[in-house]
Amino acid sequence: MKLSRSAAAPDGRMPLMEHLRELRSRLIKAILGLVLGAIVGWIVFTPVWEFMTQPYTRLPTEHCLNNKCDLVVHGIFEGFFVHLKVALMVGAVLSSPVWLYQIWAFVAPGLYNKERRWTYTFMAAAVPLFLLGAALAYLTMDKGLEILIGLAPGDTTVLIGVKDYLSYAQAMLFIFGLTFELPLFVVMLNVVGILTHARIRKSRRLLIFGVFVFAAVATPSQDPFTMLALALPTIVLFEIAEVIAYFHDRRRAREPDPYADLSDDEASPLNLDAVDAALEKGDRAV
């Protein structure tokens, strides 16, 4: 008889094999969601591909063949693999509620109520930040491509394969999206008490320098325009994260100290709730 997590224990504990069975079930459901989304992505390939290639088709035609910027297919199977990659990208986006829920359903029973609230906040902010970064990458791709293609000698024609362009577009979207998540991690580290506002303020110059170095190395084109397009908004987001950390630390400092009225030689009262929570945490770790 298979036990659900709630049936195994009130706090979500269960034997190792039950954990593995549940993990397998969650993975199967997530993969099925991805497959169904990929089928939809294959069906709507044409409008999605036209949308993705607009940054390239908007380029000046000086270095394009017959004054028209078209992508080139280099092999027999390249068209199929491009369809497959685009379908998987669309499928990952469409099925994100499914696989995000499967991850959450597997992890949530092992979290305390406060940790769950932090997770809700993290997810609510992470998705818009990633989409904001991806949108900025899409808007700046044509400028980076124009700079790189403009470096070709005047008497040459630039032929870009669909596979190369798709790899470039994927790298731009994911790098911008994931970079915009970094300030959110700073906020979460401050919330859990690992990183204070004082430490953030002290490291501001080093942080700004690191952002510019990261943007110069991580961007696929590595041109100055794309580097600045990634670095400057990221620094703004880090400044917002620092402000949030400042107010959070101030609020934490205003919280009353339960032991402030005790003299130096007076024993502090035993916090039974904290002891119970520590014991429960130790049981869960075992």
Description:
It is found in: Cell membrane; Membrane. One of its GO terms (cellular component) is TAT protein transport complex. InterPro entries: TatC. Belongs to the TatC family. It is a multi-pass membrane protein. The chain is an all-alpha fold. The protein has one domain. It has twelve helices and no strands. Helix 3 (45-57) packs across helix 6 (113-150). The longest helix is centred in the middle third of the chain and has 38 residues, at 113-150. The radius of gyration is 25 Å and the shape is flat. The two termini are 25 Å apart. The model is unreliable at 1-8 (pLDDT under 50).
Order of helices and strands: HHHHHHHHHHHH
Task: Give the total of domains.
Answer: 1
**What is the percent of helical residues?**
over 70%
Proportion of strand residues = under 5%
The gyration radius over C-alpha positions equals 25 Å
Tally of separate helices? 12
Mean pLDDT: 80
| Biggest sheet layout | none
Q: Which oligomerization state do the chains in this entry correspond to?
A: single chain
Question: Can you tell me the residue ranges where pLDDT is under 50 for at least 5 consecutive residues?
Answer: 1-8
Structural class estimated from helices and strands: mainly alpha
- By DSSP, the count of extended strands is 0
For the record, give the distance between the C-alpha atoms at the N and C termini, rounded to a whole number.
25 Å
Instruction: Please tell me what the overall shape is.
Output: flat
